[in-house]
Amino acid sequence: MGELLTLPLSWGSFLTFALMAIVLLLVILFMVTYAIYAERKILGYMQSRIGPNRTGKFGLLQTPADVFKLLIKEDVIPQKADRPLFKLAPIIAFVPSFVVLATIPYAENMYFANLDIGVLYYVALSGLSVIGIVLGGWASNNKYSLLGGMRSAAQLVSYAIPLVISAVGVVLMSGTMNLMGIVERQAGWFWNWNFIPQILAFIVFIISAIAELNRTPFDLPEAESELVAGYHVEYSGFRFAFFMLTEYVYMIAMSALITTLFFGGWHAPAPFLEFIPGFIWFVIKFCCVFFFIIWLRGTMPRIRIDQLMSLGWRVLLPLSLGNIFVTAIVMEIIKAING
Question: How far apart (Å, rounded) are the C-alpha atoms in residues 225 and 203?
Fold first, then answer.
């Protein structure tokens, strides 16, 4: 296990973990606040409009104002809803999205937990959020929310498999599931980054990641024109805010994971640029991936549910399996040549 997990169990280590969790939560809340602002401004420019510009200078306080409005709104629970599950669902959806961020190495000496099974830990926990979505859809006692929850479950099953299999190609090349080890394997020039030798895995991974995030063009669980917002149609106030927080925290987490697996993490694109701190390089790459996800929302139409399923099972799954076989064969050939 990682260094932080080998600390003796004592009040001191417990308080350290608690303090680190609070710091991470505050940082993530700040990032989500201005990720929403950035998305609204970017989409505004892409659609030839201004975006938020009234509350605060350049509209910088618009998102905090919207969050405050949600927090003071009345918390409405449908009369025939399953009240315990209705209340619990947003929390179940949010917690895994927050916990997985602890495994991401943001720089060589900047991480919360260095796990030897970091990739497995991430993909295992990230799939738990759909339980909260399905519970929220079912507990609302609303046919539209139930359809949204079931769509989300079907989407996760269809795209989690190619996502995990495509990550296996990176694990085979790196020889480890430790995220720190995967980043260190990509040191040097940018052509050592995994997105070049694993270009097929990268394409499959990023498509599957966007589908898992329920983002355009795969936002079928919400589908306002069909399901009137889907699984959270009956939610209001701070419980609705929890679902929105989950979506953006997962966007941040997935962008960070893509940066780690395929874009060299904190490494510079060339050795002579290593004088710039690694954290800066990580942030630049992270922002590029995050922008790409936003850009897709502004340019791509929503696909049909049958197209969604067909793409996952008939295209991405065979491609991800083929990538594993090719990677394994190439690794064996390289091993035989060097041996």
Answer: 29
CB 37 within 8 A of CB 59: yes
Q: Which DSSP state fits 311? A: I
Residue 57 carries which DSSP code?
G
DSSP percent split of the chain into helix, strand, coil, nearest 5: 70, 0, 30
Copy the structure tokens of residue 116.
Answer: 């030897």
Peptide bond into 217 cis (omega under 30): yes
pLDDT of 226 reads 66
Res. 315: pLDDT tops 80: yes
Beta bridge partners of 107: 110
Q: Which two tokens stand for residue 42?
A: 């970017």
> What pLDDT, in 10s, does the model give residues 239-259?
888 888 888 998 999 999 999
Q: Which residues contact 118 (CB under 8 A, 6 or more apart)?
A: 103, 177, 178, 179, 180
How many C-beta atoms lie closer than 10 Å to residue 247's C-beta? 20
Residue 1 has pLDDT above 50, yes or no: no
User: pLDDT band at 323, cuts 50/70/90?
Assistant: very high
